[in-house]
Amino acid sequence: MSIAANKNQLTTPWPLRSLAQIISYVLHPVFIPVYVVLFLLYEHPFHFLGYAGRQKVMVVGQALAMYTFFPLVTVGLLRALGFIRSFHLHDRKDRIIPLVACGIWYFWIWYVWRNMAGQSPVTVQFALGIWLAASLGLLLNSYMKISLHGLSMGVALCFMLLLSLQENLHYGTWLSSTIFLTGLVCAARFIVSDHRSIEIYGGVFAGMLCMLVGWVVG
User: Fold this and answer.
1) Alpha-carbon distance 179 to 160, whole Å?
2) Distance of CA 189 to CAs 3, 19, 92, 150, Å?
3) Eight-class DSSP state of 65
4) What is the pTM of this model?
5) Domain boundaries, position 102
6) How many CB atoms within 10 Å of residue 52?
7) Dihedral-angle region of residue 82 (phi above 0 means left; psi in -120 to 50 means alpha; beta otherwise)
8) What is the rounded distance in angstroms from the CA atom of residue 193 to the CA atom of residue 108?
9) What does the alpha-carbon distance between residue 127 and residue 130 come to, in Å, rounded to a whole number?
C-alpha cells in the first residue's frame, strides 16, 4: 500500500473508514451485475414482461453463478493454493489469473444469453459490456492498478444512461441513484484502498467506454 494511502487511512475517522469498507463490500464488482439484472427483471416494466416467475429465477441464477459464485470460488481456490497472497488482490500480479478466469465466466454468460431464445437484447449488450470491461481491465493491469470497483460502476452507469436515452420512460430516480452510488463507491475506494485518482476515475471511464462499445456491437 502506498504511503499516501496509508496516511489517508490514518487521518480518516474509523467510523468513516468502516462505512467505506461496508460500501466497498456491498457494491463489490461481483455484485453489481446481479443488481442490474434484478432491476431489469423486477423493476423495469418492459424487457422481461413475458417472463414467468420461474424464467426470471433462472436468469437471476445464471447471473449469480457467473458474476458472483464462480469468481468468488476462483479467488478462494487461488488463495488456498497459494497463487495469490490476498483475497483483496492488493497486488497487480495477484489480479492476473482472477481477471483471466472472470473473463472466461463473463464470456460464457454473454454467449449463453446471446443464443438463448427470448432473452432480452439489453441483457446481451450488458453482458458484452461486462466482458469487454474485464478484458480491458486485464490489459490496463499491466500499466496501473485500475480500480475494479470503478470499472463495474462505470459499466452500470453507462448502461443506465443508455437505457434512459433509448426508452421513453422515467429514468430520473434510477439514473440519479446510479450516479450517486458511483460517486459513493469512488469516495469509498479513496478512503480504504491504495488507488490513485487516475486508477479510480480511469476505471469508471474505461467501464463506461466498454459498455458503450458493448451496446453498439451487441
Assistant:
1) 9
2) 15, 11, 16, 9
3) I
4) 0.91
5) 3-217
6) 9
7) left
8) 30
9) 5
* pLDDT tens-place string over residues 56-114: 899 999 999 999 999 999 999 999 998 988 888 888 899 999 999 999 999 999 999 99
The C-alpha cell at 174 is 434510477
Note the Cα 11 to chain centre separation in Å: 29
Q: Which three cell numbers stand for residue 81?
A: 493454493
Supply the pLDDT for residue 28.
96
Q: Which three cell numbers stand for residue 40?
A: 431489469
d(CA 76, CA 4): 29
DSSP assignment, residue 68? I
Cell numbers standing for residue 48: 422481461
**Count of structural domains, the chain:** 1
Give the residues of the chain that fall short of pLDDT 70: 1-10, 45, 49-50
Handedness of CA 160, 165, 170, 173 (dihedral sign): positive
Q: Which of 58, 15, 8, 9 is nearest to 37 (CA)?
A: 58
**CA distances to 66, 86, 120 from 7, in Å:** 37, 22, 47
User: What pLDDT sits at residue 42?
Assistant: 87
CA distance 36 to 105: 17
**Distance (Å, whole) CA 76 – CA 74:** 5
Helical (H) or strand (E) element with 210:
helix 197-217
